[in-house]
Amino acid sequence: MATTAASVAEICAAAKRASQPLATVGSEIKDAALEAVAQAIEELVPEILDANAQDLEDARAGDYNSAFLEKLRLDEARIAAMADGVRTIAALPDPAGEVIDGFRLPNGLDVRKVRVPLGVVAVVYEARPNVTIDAAALCLKAGNAIVLRGSSAASRSNAILAGLAASAVAGVGLPEDALGLVSGSGREEIAELATQTGLVDLIVPRGGEGLKESLKAVATVPVLYAASGNCHVYIDRWSDQDAAEAIVLNAKLQRPGVCNAIETLLVHADVPTPFLRRALTALHDAGVTLHGDERARAAVPELPIDVASEADWDTEYLALELAVRVVDSVEEAIAHINAHGSGHSEAIVTRDTAAARAFQIGVDAACVYVNASTRFTDGGEFGMGAEIGNSTQKLHARGPIGIRELCTFKYLVEGDGHVRP
Amino acid sequence: MATTAASVAEICAAAKRASQPLATVGSEIKDAALEAVAQAIEELVPEILDANAQDLEDARAGDYNSAFLEKLRLDEARIAAMADGVRTIAALPDPAGEVIDGFRLPNGLDVRKVRVPLGVVAVVYEARPNVTIDAAALCLKAGNAIVLRGSSAASRSNAILAGLAASAVAGVGLPEDALGLVSGSGREEIAELATQTGLVDLIVPRGGEGLKESLKAVATVPVLYAASGNCHVYIDRWSDQDAAEAIVLNAKLQRPGVCNAIETLLVHADVPTPFLRRALTALHDAGVTLHGDERARAAVPELPIDVASEADWDTEYLALELAVRVVDSVEEAIAHINAHGSGHSEAIVTRDTAAARAFQIGVDAACVYVNASTRFTDGGEFGMGAEIGNSTQKLHARGPIGIRELCTFKYLVEGDGHVRP
User: Fold this and answer.
1) Nearest Cα residue in chain A from B347
2) What is the number of H-type helices and E-type strands within chain B?
3) Residue A23: its chain B contacts at CB < 8 A?
4) Is-above-0.90 flag for pTM?
5) Percent of chain A at pLDDT above 70?
């Protein structure tokens, strides 16, 4: 493993060299490396906990809040979950070498479009040590070398985790430099990492908007932004009320702080008031602050519903807070979502096939649900094993970023002396 | 059609509004619009020639060379080819709505990954009026609205072509603003176009390196760069000599100025000298200036072969010029290509299955050929109907950029009240 004893450019160059054998090796060897990572995690639990305890001690002395410390903290269960996660990824089909498309041209040339690794993937993340292992395992499974840049607050935790992963890679005969770790306390290393054109093939930030904006400003290598999500559930006129209530509550409450939780509820004007009362009361009783338009507030006057401003339609609360708007048609719901949504996950609850189809075709988002919660947008839920984030961009990867999305492809063309006339 | 009577932002906003009905319309309507474009081109030949003659007259008075004037010039054959090209694109299968993947999750949710248009595609190009029609037809077929920014030297030609295309779109009931034309003589419009985040989903430059660099410096919307190509043919030890000669001559001579023509010939040291003499003599006789390493020059001392410098391995001549290097193994050929190539199109000529496989797996390029000329890297040749360029980047599109590459996808998920546990 190359670390910041070397420069960022040297770490990236070492990873690039290591990426070539890694890209062409069989699944057995990559999976053996991943199993070795899982075993090393299990064998080094005391050492990992000790390193993490030191990180936590320093962090407690620093200016960090309890949410930060909770993310940074490892325990035996979290460490066991890391090892399980690696084995789940190892068990996935190898994305490298998959034939995506194939055809014979009229002139007899045989063309195969084959999935291949990207090369070197850099992952920049905040003080969650488990991301060190998650990201490394996903990249290795896809056949990519990886350069990790974690938070300095997690430096000891990251060092032991990245170190054991690099040793496991070396243990199966692959270059140890396939896994590099950049540390440092400033943003200079991020800027340096994001400008290694020709060495780094993709950089994935996993963190807040500040991290993304600072990358956007400097990056010359391609960036895949894990997304924020301003998501909606729309309850159509003709819909199952129990399903609607369950979906709304699940999408808002099951984990309010994540990108696929909803921020606005849209309700057709013909949805009966008793149902709207029931659903909004349940949300209120669960501690949700409500912001409503005039009709929503008028429908349930006994609840304390703030007047929603235009800004509410554009806000990702990531908290127990929800905007509510009454619309007159599925078309109005679609227009609202396309105007205010972030293109992440959008749901309609309906029994009307025409409304379901209009919504699926008309809504411009990564994942469009009919009669299901937006909370399913997740690499694990989608059977991708794990994800490195969710993309709301339209190029390359949209939705969960799993091992296939960490690949590119190439065309392999075979002839017998073909020349172009 | 919105034109620069309006601002660039207004044109893009109009295109964004128009993109929604366009994205959801059936193939029949898009194909009818394309047929109407082809017919309008055929009906307006005199008017198109007249507009082009005026552009040419101004250009002749300006400081332009003959190659520039030749690109700008339209004639009846070129206009007929434009109409034919539109009909070829119309006849392709509709990429929008194609199901790329689909599966049922363990919880019963049904997931389809469906190809959908990107939204608004901007194309920035130089003084080739035919690109106006090519780009518009590809984007419309994919269901995208398009904003064109051509060269001011072709302003009259572009205006009539874009105008007839917009009228054809309006004629089938789609919004005329689905096709916008930005003109102007400076780079300010390009910079403005490249920063319309939220309105423009993709910008594709078709032009020289200067255009690409100026875009790279300012673009905040995603850019798909049509590629330059430093391509190679490697002649392996055990190879068919007639096929090898034919492929080398075709790859260098058939059209030397394009990105998939070769710039370096690699030859295994065991390839017999008489063959190397024959191939290099044929190239020399065809007017090719040769730059060779020591062994290549020693093998054919009677030919005037310059001493190749390190710079030659990295040069895209785009002309009757070729570097020649002798290597000792397929591995050395692969290493040379990965070090110096641009990841475009690479070919091996061999009868050795092991060498062919090593080359296909080891070479990191968009298209890797066995026993065929690199000149086949082309959307038309690959059965994509046409292309807007070739990509050497690894994200989203690699190789020919056709109508599928002008699309994104979304996940459509259907349940019956599913909530996440």
Assistant:
1) A413
2) 15, 17
3) 364
4) yes
5) 98
